[in-house]
Each structure stands twice: as structure tokens, then as C-alpha cells.
């Protein structure tokens, strides 16, 4: 069966082929009367027309492909970000290619190099380390790149993330109001912006509430349940008194809760616990986790919109655009009054 051509769609809709082309192109659709757009799209659907993105790319020197680089697809933080980005990109006529680096720098370098070789138009990067050679290479090459969730020391790139400082401050304020004075932070890796910034915000919040800082931060090797287990083991072995824990993400909180439960500590009777991100299953835990809700789908969508703007303007738009999305504390069952 032969491929349906654009001219046939135009004939079916009763419009000029150039009008049909604009009506079917998400980036040019605003130039066409809405009724005409609908007529062209109905004609395309009746005929089974599939746009030839290769031909469109040859005319515009674009591939209409964007890449999203994530560190761990098994982490429930990332699927909502992927969904938000994909919805925006597909609506603009782009294809999203997803790559999972498994937190491996050399794997990431190879994947990014491969996608550059295939001519992707730009990258959304969720893997950024504070000092990131892969991101530095993208900057040097002038490839449109937007950082999402994590930023890096390189300040020339747009960034879309959450208001980490406010999220941590809300946790500490909540715990302080419940009478907690011995609060520990399970921090994310120090080579990530989220790990660094949430730890800084935690110490500042303790000082604001005149709570002794002491050795109150335990750095974790990863944002994983296993790292939360290991951090809780270190907390128990060190003998530091605590009545509450502020975990840098939900998975760390989950690992800590399991380990402390095995040690006979009940939550929230013996200690209180907060997380960060509000992953979907956190409300289903027993007890349900008090955590910071982050608009992850909107984060991915905002990153995609920023990337499309950069691509459309060939980098002439003002940059960098640093966007921090609002967060809120969701109080559930893992926080309660400090033990007497």
C-alpha cells in the first residue's frame, strides 16, 4: 500500500498543500484558522496520513528528536518527569528518546555521544553531578541542553527543579513544632546539587529554630533504599540520640524505616520520619510517610518547554532560565510528638 501524500490530504480537505502542511505542524498550526486545522486533521485521519518527519528534518536541518538522560529508571521519581516531557515534546511534533545511565559516568558519556552522532536536537539531563564532564562537553558543543531536578556548577544552562530549601525547611518546622530537638538528616550524595542544597538547608533550618547542629548530617552514597538502610545502620552504630529523621528523598526514608523497625524502634512512637518527593506508594506505607510533594510531571513538562524554546530560537533566547517549582509538606502518619 502506497504512502498517503500531503497533497492528497490537502485535496481531501479542500485547501492548498502549504496550508495543510502548516495545519499538521504543531509549531506552525497557530498560523491557520482553527476550523481549517480541524478540517485538515480530520482529512488526514480519514486517509491514514503519517507525517514524514525525515523530510521535514531535511528542510529545517533538525531531527525533531530530543533525548532525556536519567540515572535510574527503577527510581519512581523519574517516570512522572518522563511523562511530562513526552507530552510536551510529542505535542510539538518531537520524538522523545529515553536513556538510563544506571548512575555510571562512562555509560552516560557513551550514550550521550551516540545520541549526538544520531543528530538529536537537544538534551534534557536529569543525571547532572555538581562537577559533570558530560554536561561540560554539551556546553562546549553548543547543544541545547536543559537540566532537570539536578543542577551543576556550570551556570550557563537552563535548570528546572523543585524548591529544595523550602521543602527541607517545612520538614524541620513541622518537627520542631512537634517538640523534636534531636533531628538527623539523611543527606543525598554530596556530588549532586540536591544532596548539597538540602543538607545546607537542613543546617540552616536547625539554626533558625535554635536546635543544636552537632553531627546531624549523615551523607548517603546514593538516593536508594539500600543507601537508607546503610545510613540507618550507621546512625544506630554511632549511638547519636535522635527523635526525628529528615530524609533527603522517599527511598532513603523507606530504607531507614525498615532498618529501624528491625531494631525495635516504632514510627512515630519512638521517632518521627519525613521524606522528599511524595512518590505514589508513600501514602500506602504503614505508617504512611510524611513527605514533601514535588510537581514532578510539571517539572518534566517545564524542562521540555524550555528546550523547545531554545531549539526554536537557535539559542538566541535569554539564558539561563532557572525555574524552581513550588513544593508542599504532606503530613501523614510517620510524624508525631517527640517522645517524652
UniProtKB/TrEMBL annotation:
Pfam (any one): Peripla_BP_3
Query: Is DNA-binding set as a keyword in this record?
Result: yes
Domain of life of the native organism: Bacteria
High-level lineage: Bacteria, Bacillati, Actinomycetota, Actinomycetes, Jatrophihabitantales
Keywords (A to Z) from UniProt = DNA-binding, Repressor, Transcription, Transcription regulation
Q: Which SMART domains match?
A: HTH_LACI (SM00354)
In its UniProt entry, what is this protein called?
A: LacI family transcriptional regulator
Q: Does the keyword Transcription regulation apply?
A: yes
Query: InterPro entries from the xrefs?
Result: HTH_LacI, LacI/GalR-like_sensor, Lambda_DNA-bd_dom_sf, Peripla_BP_I
Q: Which organism is it from?
A: Jatrophihabitans telluris
Could you list the residue ranges forming a coiled coil in this record?
none
HTH lacI-type domain residues:
4-60
Amino acid at each position: 500500500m502506497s504512502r498517503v501524500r500531503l497533497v492528497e490530504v490537502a485535496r481531501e480537505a479542500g485547501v492548498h498543500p502549504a496550508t495543510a502542511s502548516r495545519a499538521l505542524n504543531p509549531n506552525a498550526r497557530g498560523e491557520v484558522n482553527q476550523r481549517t486545522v480541524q478540517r485538515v486533521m480530520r482529512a488526514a485521519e480519514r486517509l491514514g496520513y503519517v507525517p514524514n518527519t525525515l523530510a521535514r528534518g531535511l528542510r529545517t536541518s533538525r531531527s525533531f528528536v530530543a533525548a532525556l538522560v536519567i540515572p535510574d529508571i527503577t527510581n519512581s521519581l523519574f517516570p512522572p518527569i518522563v511523562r511530562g516531557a513526552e507530552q510536551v515534546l510529542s505535542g510539538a511534533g518531537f520524538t522523545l528518546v529515553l536513556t538510563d545511565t544506571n548512575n555510571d559516568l562512562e555509560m552516560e558519556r557513551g550514550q550521550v555521544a551516540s545520541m549526538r552522532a544520531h543528530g538529536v536536537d537537544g538534551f534534557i539531563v536529569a543525571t547532572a553531578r555538581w562537577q559533570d564532564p558530560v554536561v561540560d562537553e554539551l556546553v562546549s558543543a553548543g547543544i541545547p541542553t536543559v537540566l532537570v531536578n539536578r543542577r551543576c556548577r556550570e551556570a550557563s544552562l537552563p535548570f528546572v527543579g523543585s524548591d529544595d530549601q523550602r521543602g527541607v525547611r517545612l520538614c524541620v518546622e513541622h518537627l520542631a513544632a512537634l517538640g523534636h530537638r534531636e533531628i538527623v538528616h539523611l543527606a543525598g550524595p554530596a556530588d549532586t546539587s540536591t544532596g548539597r542544597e538540602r543538607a545546607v538547608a537542613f543546617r540552616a533550618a536547625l539554626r533558625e529554630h535554635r536546635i543544636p547542629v552537632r553531627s546531624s548530617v549523615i551523607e548517603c552514597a546514593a538516593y536508594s533504599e539500600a543507601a537508607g538502610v546503610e545510613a540507618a545502620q550507621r546512625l544506630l552504630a554511632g549511638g547519636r540520640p535522635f527523635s526525628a529523621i529528615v530524609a533527603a528523598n522517599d527511598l532513603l526514608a523507606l530504607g531507614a524505616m525498615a532498618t529501624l523497625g528491625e531494631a525495635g524502634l516504632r514510627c512515630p512512637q519512638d521517632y518521627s520520619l519525613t521524606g522528599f518527593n511524595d512518590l505514589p506508594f508513600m501514602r500506602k506505607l504503614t505508617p504512611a510517610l510524611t513527605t514533601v510533594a514535588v510537581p514532578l510531571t510539571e517539572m518534566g513538562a517545564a524542562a521540555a518547554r524550555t528546550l523547545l524554546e531554545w531549539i526554536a530560537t537557535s539559542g538566541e533566547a535569554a539564558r539561563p532560565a532557572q525555574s524552581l517549582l513550588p513544593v508542599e509538606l504532606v503530613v501523614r502518619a510517620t510524624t508525631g510528638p517527640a517522645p517524652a
